[in-house]
Model the fold of this input.
Amino acid sequence: MYLCKKRNAMKYPHTATVDMHFNAPVSAVWDGLTNPDQIRKYFFGTEAVSDWKKGSTLHFKGVWEGTGYLDKGFILDIEKDALLRYSYFSSFSGQEDIPENYGEITYRLSAENGGTKLTIFQQNIETEEKAKHSVDNWKMVMGGLKDLLEK
Done:
């Protein structure tokens, strides 16, 4: 088992980028991204495990369509209410668990128009098709967070 603890040169050229506006304060969106109880509510029951400090491990565990998974990485940068960047390896990727197969996911938050703008970047994606799939997944997942925070 390998965990990518530092930024790597990206093996694959594609990036998924999603911008979303929340009618909620930055602190509420941040809590939704880093509070395991909140994450579980909108992210298909996923259990997020971390102490949310730079250099710490970050695991996402759960069951999807009857198959267990453990996705993992390390927190590369974290600034409360502003930035979360982590390395990421999915057990569903079908790839070998080696550094060059880890992606990098970045959440950037900023106050905007009385709410919060969240921008997500997912880097090191193999193909344009997989990048589009990631965009659709992020929109669905963050749509769940939006519904949770705006109800």
In short: The mean pLDDT is 91. The radius of gyration is 15 Å. The first strand starts at residue 14 and ends at 22. The beta strands are 14-22, 47-49, 57-64, 67-79, 83-88, 103-112, 115-125.
